[in-house]
Design a protein that fits this description.
By secondary structure, the protein is of the alpha/beta class. The chain has 15 helices and 15 strands. The strands form four sheets. Strands 2-8-7-6-5-3-4 form a seven-stranded mixed beta sheet, with helices on both faces. Strands 9-10-15-14 form a four-stranded antiparallel beta sheet, covered by helices on one side. It has a two-stranded parallel ribbon with strand order 1-13. Helix 7 (about 180-190) links the parallel strand 3 (about 170-175) and strand 4.
């Protein structure tokens, strides 16, 4: 129940009898404005920290920033000094390497020229939602009603909405590590994190055997395929085993009158699968998972369109009213021109195929160049190995350097390895620890959206030279 304070209208009428006379400026004149030095009134130093603790809530005190962006800032500083760095850190695309589809560029321009700059509906334009529905039926074999598609400004608002609507403070939210950003959403929701460390044996993907003993009290299971940061993807068998586990658990909970385990399935990279890798979803391998699966998706990665901020959730019909309400209050809608251009693109399968014939080939070429380069180094006996690329724009690479020495300097941690690669080889990478993995393992994420094959080749030569210096 909201408490509302009413103020009588008569108390809001200004007293004009004592108001000072105003200067008579015309509407076209620029009025002089006295400058107030706001900085002189603001707390500083220890006072600033104390003010922050008092003004903000307890949740804010433990909220940290992105480690990836911190690393990227360090690289930009080196580049500004003229240092050559092959930047393989941020999961983004450089427009000099990857452009959005021409039809999207044209479509956005046409929408702007036509004056399509007002608010879109909070849940998305009808034609964009329909285009997503048609895409899922046409390319994924999943039939939903348009009403199940709810748009957002990229994938983050649908992710936040899913966590906010499913997870109560104190509930358990289960996910594998390394993974992208799950710990932050746990913190925002006041949930308990069940973060299960994975390893190379399962391609860093959660398994049913890991999940089974941890399900008590879990209301949200977070899965991502292809996986950020590892570039690996679930097989139908792996995913089916997890789905069988969830279906059994939810039948048990239904009989006991308990809340089900919901699955948030982040498939933002599903169009970027390589080689023999095929994309699978919980509903495609087990249709009975439809009531329990919330899809999160976007054009961000599949079309190198990270800055256009067009994403969506595909939600079971029973959940859509609350989902729409929260998204509406968030105001996190994608811009109207970008939604219109997205609708036109997703309804044009031939345009998608033409774009991916070039774009996917270019992404795969970069991933393969890295994988082949590191595989060749491993054959030379150098302490490095990589996993064959399966999907997304990432490659997982392990540097077996812990305990090794560079001159008189000993390498004791993943941070030491990252610094070695940056300072000795001009290679910017992100340790798996930035994705929640606590132990030092030597595993690093390589992201290829902002570099050329030539930059990768030069970077590999520098790495080979640097690794040979170790003793």
């Amino acid at each position: 129940m909201w408490a509302v304070t009413l103020v009588r209208a008569s108390t809001l009428v200004p007293d004009t009898t004592t108001a000072p006379a105003q200067a008579n400026y015309s509407s076209t004149e620029v009025r002089p404005v006295a400058t107030i030095d706001c900085t002189s009134c603001l707390p500083e130093g220890e006072t600033e920290e104390s003010f922050s603790r008092n003004a903000l809530n307890s949740m804010s005190q433990g909220l940290g920033g992105s480690q990836i962006l911190k690393i990227a800032g360090e690289i930009k500083a080196l580049q500004a000094q003229g240092t050559e760095v092959c930047n393989l850190t941020v999961g983004d695309f450089s427009p000099t390497q990857f452009r959005i589809p021409d039809s999207m560029t044209d479509g956005i321009g046409q929408a702007l020229a036509a004056g399509q700059t007002n608010y879109p509906p909070a849940v998305g334009l009808p034609e964009t939602r329909k285009a997503v529905r048609d895409l899922y039926e046409r390319d994924l074999g999943l039939r939903y009603k348009t009403d199940s598609v709810i748009m957002g400004s990229g994938a983050r608002p649908p992710i936040f909405a899913t966590v906010a609507l499913v997870v109560e403070p104190g509930d358990k939210m289960l996910f594998g590590i390394p993974s992208w950003n799950n710990p932050y959403y746990v913190h925002l929701s006041g949930a308990q994190a069940i973060a299960l460390a994975t390893d190379a044996a399962s391609n860093f993907l959660l398994t049913a055997d890991q999940i089974a003993p941890q399900l008590e009290g879990v209301t949200l299971l977070c899965l991502n395929s292809p996986l950020n940061p590892c570039g690996t993807a679930y097989s139908a068998q792996q995913l089916g085993e997890i789905c069988d586990l969830i279906l059994t658990e939810n039948r048990r909970r239904a009989a006991a009158g308990k809340r089900p385990v919901m699955v948030m399935y982040d498939q933002v990279y599903w169009m970027l699968c390589f080689g023999e890798t095929q994309h699978h979803s919980p509903v495609s391998v087990r249709p009975e998972m439809a009531p329990y699966t919330i899809f999160v998706d976007a054009i961000s990665k599949s079309f190198a369109a990270t800055g256009l901020r067009v994403g969506w959730a595909v939600v079971p019909p029973a959940l859509t009213p609350r989902f729409k309400a929260l998204i509406g209050h968030m105001g996190a809608w994608a811009p109207r021109p970008a939604q219109l251009a997205t609708a036109a693109l997703l309804q044009d399968p031939s345009a998608i195929r033409r774009y991916h014939a070039s774009m996917k080939t270019a992404v795969e070429a970069r991933l393969n160049a890295l994988h082949q380069g590191f595989s060749a180094m491993a054959e030379e006996g150098l302490p490095v190995r990589s996993m064959a690329p399966q999907g997304a724009i990432y490659l997982s690479v392990k540097f077996d350097m812990l305990g090794r020495n560079l001159g008189n300097q000993r390498i004791n941690s993943d941070e030491d390895i990252r610094a070695f690669l940056l300072n000795e080889a001009g290679l910017g990478v992100v340790p798996f620890q930035a994705f929640g993995l606590e132990q030092d393992s030597g595993w690093m994420r390589f992201s290829v959206g902002a570099v050329s094959v030539e930059e990768i080749s030069a970077g590999l030569d520098r790495v080979r030279t640097a690794l040979r210096k170790l003793n």
